[in-house]
Write a structure and sequence with these properties.
Elements lengths: L9 E9 L5 E10 L4 E5 L6 H8 L7 E6 L2 E2 L4 H5 L2 E4 L11 H11 L6 H10 L15 H13 L5 E5 L7 H16 L3 E5 L3 H7 L2 E6 L2 E7 H8 L2 E7 L15 E4 L4 E6 L5 H15 L4 E8 L2 H17 L1
Parallel strand pairs: 3-8, 3-9, 6-7, 7-8
Antiparallel strand pairs: 1-2, 1-4, 4-5, 9-10, 11-13, 11-14, 12-13
């Protein structure tokens, strides 16, 4: 018995944004976000990530397409929708001379929420800001200022949270601590859309991944499905003696000779493990054929390598 999938919490159809006398930032974007998921939107600088977020959050006026959030058209019900959305922008934006706790309180009130000191305390403690609550923001480190931005976005308990490069400029330890906070938000039922240059964040956090370039969505899918579909194995055999050509016994393998015949390189398989099995079989066939090798270096494609490949492919298609 089939079940109908739930309506998306965010439904974007044919979204376009062309600036007057300027470039096309979004060229017909379709994107659906599921309730309760963490969705990572990956793309190089200028891909359209921030424009897409701004369109949903009411900061950018699209020139075409439609956006529905929580089943509501954001143009017709912008006030109701906006109160249920949180945004952590790339740029730090607050009164640097104000105290941390006052800025977070103000943000909650700005969205029409009743005062709730217990909730403010909970948010600040979750982000390790409680001890800094009475500090002027200007005295905080860059990483702590970034946490204040997240606290402000969470103060009104949004159902949908956008994190636009939330860990840009912070150190690795602080970044991982913030990942834990994001995971905690998901456990509370918050839907999170994350843009990042740190692709390991997508590998660590995301349920699904989308790749955008030149204002177009190149791919969206579950992270594991992308790895299975587009992942590859690369193995480099360091040969004891250079080879002039690939022997017939190895002709069925996806291998090439490199470094003047000193290296036999395998590139094949997928993200389901077939590559690893073929590399093991290749090693056995090399031994059976009397071809000695002094080293073997094998690795699976990372999400970063898949992402770079998709972006490069997209550039070629656009150029064509």
């Amino acid at each position: 018995m089939s079940t109908t999938p739930p309506d998306p919490i965010l439904d974007i159809r044919g979204l376009e944004k062309t600036y007057r006398n300027g470039p096309t930032a979004l060229g017909g974007v379709d994107l659906q976000i599921r309730k309760g998921e963490i969705f990572a939107l990956l793309g190089p600088n200028g891909a359209g990530k921030t424009t897409l977020i701004g369109s949903v959050c009411g900061l950018v006026n699209p020139t075409g397409g439609s956006i529905q959030a929580f089943g509501l058209d954001i143009r017709k019900h912008w006030r109701e929708v906006r109160c249920r959305i949180g945004l952590v922008p790339q740029e730090l934006s607050f009164d640097m001379f104000d105290k941390v706790i006052r800025q977070v309180r103000y943000s909650r009130g700005m969205f029409g929420c009743a005062p709730d000191e217990a909730r403010i305390e909970e948010v600040l403690k979750a982000l390790s800001l409680w001890d800094k609550r009475d500090e002027p923001i200007r005295k905080l480190s860059g990483g702590m200022k970034r946490r204040v931005m997240i606290a402000k976005a969470l103060a009104h308990d949004p159902d949908l949270l956008f994190l636009d490069e939330p860990t840009a400029g912070v150190d690795v330890e602080l970044r991982r601590d913030m990942w834990k906070q994001i995971e905690g938000l998901r456990e509370r039922g918050t839907t999170i859309i994350l843009t990042t240059h740190y692709i390991e964040e997508a590998e660590e956090m995301a349920d699904r991944v989308g790749v955008i370039n030149k204002g177009r969505i190149l791919l969206t899918d579950d992270k594991d499905a992308i790895m299975a579909q587009l992942g590859r194995t690369e193995a480099v055999f360091e040969l004891a003696e250079p080879m002039g050509e690939i022997p017939a016994a190895l002709s069925e393998y996806p291998v090439t000779l490199e470094d003047e015949g000193r290296k036999l390189v395998y590139r094949g398989g997928d993200g389901t493990g077939t590559g690893k099995r073929e590399v093991a079989e290749l090693a056995q066939d090399l031994t059976r054929s009397g071809i000695a090798f002094t080293g073997l270096d094998a690795h699976e494609s990372s999400l970063e390598e898949i992402f770079v490949g998709l972006v490069e492919q997209g550039k070629e298609e656009i150029a064509a």
